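Query structure, 380 tokens:
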């Protein structure tokens, strides 16, 4: 009798416990949903080599805990690979230019360096690179210093020589140390293509996030074969950050050497602007690699790019740099308004001059973006 009388009571207790658990779960889901609603989604887009991955790494360094020792060590093989790839591009490029250029003698290496070049080019063609050591560094440096290789390096824009070339060649001895641990600066210069989608959550006010907005930034590969992965990320985006490497006006694509990189960037920006799901989305345009642009504009006329063929240079020096930059900026502004339907022109559109390797500038830029988006949400 006692057991039959106590059973309903036990059931009620169990139901009450389950109901309490269920309510806790519901509350947690609601809290997570609310929290998710306060996380603003940013999409980092741009063509290959635009500097997106460097911006992404800067975010980790600036607004998160940075890279721990394990992560830093994981870049050792990447950095060593960058050295081998660079020297292979230059050695193979010298041989190619010696065959096609009228003054072929400029690209002829000494017999000793030809032998070294063959050895290093063979290493650079492998999938598994040996770690740099003193002997290999001596070979790399000897080849790098050869006048024919330096002449070839000056033609880097037509050979796909990576931007990190000079930096790593200047640091060869350190890179080959037995206990070498990549620095933050090394990691920022390291070149590795983004495959798939990577994401990071951060606040421009740092890890504490007190009083600051929280953002989730998505970076996807910029090469043509990676862009099919973009579409499924387009929904619910608060802002698109589009990276345009303005220094690449005289270069061709890695994946298509018949296509100028700046023309590809123009067409890609135009396509992104016209996506229906971005009707109310803010656009932040990064005119990136200004540091390289600043040096190059003194030597290579902007008009070599079809889009900029109407450019008229002014006085040389800093005045010319600013004049050329403003011209490029205006071209992108015109493209934005041409590609935006009348009902879209009121969305937030900002242009920022950036150098992805400049940590202070990247930090300042993201704080400005944070302020701009906050004012936009508040309607001010």
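Result returned for the query:
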């Amino acid at each position: 009798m006692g057991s039959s009388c106590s059973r309903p009571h036990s059931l009620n207790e169990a139901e009450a416990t389950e109901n309490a658990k269920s309510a806790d779960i519901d509350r947690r889901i609601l809290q997570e949903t609310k929290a998710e609603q306060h996380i603003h989604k940013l999409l980092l887009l741009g063509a290959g080599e635009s500097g997106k991955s460097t911006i992404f790494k800067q975010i980790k360094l600036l607004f998160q805990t940075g890279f721990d020792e394990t992560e830093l060590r994981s870049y050792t093989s990447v950095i060593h690979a960058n050295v081998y790839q660079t020297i292979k591009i230059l050695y193979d490029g010298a041989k190619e230019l010696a065959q096609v250029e009228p003054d072929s003698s400029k690209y002829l290496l000494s017999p000793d360096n030809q032998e070294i070049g063959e050895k290093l080019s063979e290493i650079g063609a492998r999938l598994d690179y040996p770690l740099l050591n003193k002997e290999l560094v001596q070979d790399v440096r000897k080849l790098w210093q050869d006048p024919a290789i330096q002449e070839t390096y000056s033609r880097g824009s037509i050979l796909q020589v990576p931007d990190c070339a000079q930096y790593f060649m200047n640091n060869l001895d350190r890179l080959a140390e037995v206990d070498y641990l990549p620095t933050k600066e090394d990691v920022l210069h390291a070149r590795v293509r983004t495959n798939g989608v990577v994401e990071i959550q951060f606040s421009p006010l740092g890890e504490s996030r007190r009083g600051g907005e929280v953002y989730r930034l998505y970076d996807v590969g910029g090469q043509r074969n990676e862009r099919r992965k973009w579409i499924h990320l387009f929904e619910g985006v608060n802002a698109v950050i589009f990276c345009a490497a303005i220094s690449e006006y005289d270069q061709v694509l890695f994946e298509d050497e018949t296509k100028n990189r700046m023309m590809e960037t123009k067409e890609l920006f135009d396509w992104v602007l016209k996506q229906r799901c971005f009707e109310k989305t803010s656009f932040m345009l990064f005119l990136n690699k200004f540091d390289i642009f600043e040096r190059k504009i003194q030597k290579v006329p902007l008009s070599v790019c079809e889009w900029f063929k109407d450019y008229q240079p002014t006085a040389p020096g800093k005045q010319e740099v600013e004049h050329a930059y403003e011209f490029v900026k205006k071209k992108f502004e015109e493209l934005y308004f041409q590609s935006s339907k009348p009902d879209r022109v009121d969305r937030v559109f900002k242009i920022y001059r950036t150098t992805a390797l400049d940590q202070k500038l990247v930090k300042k830029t993201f704080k400005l973006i944070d302020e701009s988006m906050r004012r936009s949400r508040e309607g001010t």
